[in-house]
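Reading a protein record of the kind used here takes only a little practice. Think of the row as the fold of the chain written in a discrete alphabet. With that in mind, consider the following protein and its fold in token form:
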Amino acid sequence: MDKIAAVIVAAGRGERAGAGVPKQYRPLVGRPMLVWTLHHLMASTDVGLVQVVFDPGHQDYYEEAASGLDLLDPVAGGVTRQESVLNGLRALAPHNPRYVMVHDAARLFVTSELIARLRAALEEGAQGVIPLLPVTDTVKRTDAGIITETLDRSALGLAQTPQAFVFQALLEAHEAASGQELTDDAAVAEAAGIMIHTVAGDPGNMKVTMADDLDAAARRLGREETRTGTGLDVHAFAPGDHVMLCGIRIEHDQTLDGDSDADVGLHVLVDAMLGAMSEGDLGTHFPVGDPAWKGRASSDLVAVACDLMDKHQARLIHADITLICEKPRLARYQSAMKVRIAELLGVDATRVNIKVTSTDGLGFAGRGEGIAGQAVVTIAMPVPWT
């Protein structure tokens, strides 16, 4: 069966959503809105060629949003939405698609199920089909603020996009309607005498129009999953006069051996953070013997891990760190360690826990040969792009 070509209307300025970056390029959970729209649309196996209609003045925004996507070269929009759609249809004409659907870039939650309903109607012989939502509120007609009539809502519906058509029929309808101002493609097709069928719309297929809509869309996209990472590290003692543990200097008759300041508490913290983000381990980011990290404070390693958290739009839920040694005695430093780690992570101290223990004289730690640490970190991250 023929796939449906798509015209994506993204040439507007979206001024009702506020000043600044045009709304179709506003970042939502780390990606421009247009990227989300295209991603959800192109996830459908019913969709073939995709033709974006854009404002050439937004070229830089568009190139960022379209990077890596299999799209036709964009075409410039017109003064009105209707002109923009006609330009998109003309650009598709050389490819001679059987079916086409027109979709607004501002409807980023389009689903494969909705597209499948539209295609099924076309395959069954409809020349045009649109998704329609029932009107659930009572509708009043008014004049100068006075109600003049209560309308029968059972005969009314709210139109959505995408709207799907036999390609040649819609192209000819748009050519014939050039210069008119019709509000959607179904109206253009109706004016040409095309019978428009309807399928059930999708209540989740919202259109982003106002600034509040952007906030609502961001909340919907911000689906998170909980991830857990673990860290384990050991450092041997060496001659010195202090140890660094969880960012706190502790006077001792030895120090810990390592490329950095050998802060085993921060090392296991970072290792667990990296694990939770699926970003490898300490050796991946801070190779043994790398002169760039020689003598550096381990808080710098935490900063790298925090930058990766920002990159992944992750947030720390909890960090639990255990330090294992006979000496020095660490109990009196636990509160200071907790506060310091919270500062490094930029979280409330209630999200950090420090435990200290010994091995009752057993093993290398019991013999006073070094200090071990382990950590469990829990983070929340956006659900991966699928």
